[in-house]
Amino acid sequence: MRKLGAAIAAGTVALVVAGWFYRPSTSSEWAAWVQTLGVLAAILWAVRLQTATSKESLRQAGQVAAMFANNMHWVFRELNDACGKRSWDDYTVHRRILHEVLAQGREVTLQLLDGRSLAMVSSLRTIAVEALEMTEGHGEDGNWGRLHNYFDRRLPSISAWMSATGNPPESSGPTDYAGLRTSFG
Length: 185
Description:
Elements: H1 2-21, H2 27-85, H3 88-106, H4 115-135, H5 144-164
Helix pairs in contact: 2-3, 2-4, 2-5, 3-4, 4-5
């Protein structure tokens, strides 16, 4: 942004100096000066709009990545609880939600993320795929302890990624978490 300001200042000084030594004297010269100033103002306005649009895109991509991380943390917490309680109904609901959360994570535009957020989204996508593969063959009478241990070990990793990117996990209980509801009741 400093470079843009310096370029604008240098251009303004150059125009003032040129206008001082080469003052327009005819109406066609005045028209050319006005047209030149209009074109330069339009270019500066376009650069300003492009910069604002770029910043907004970066902010939105960061928000989508944070929402994906929050949803991953929530669904892993819910799956951990379901495995601890050996609740088949909660387990199946939250496993389906994990599919949706992974789809949400695949929608994150990686090109717009900074280094930490990019690493977080990539890592969380991998963790989600791993969890889906690990839980694929699990049945109602399966090894609940192994799955409970798996989800319990992954939760600190997800929390660490969220904290590293400036989005610490919610500490409240199961609630409406970014559009995903729990299946209590």
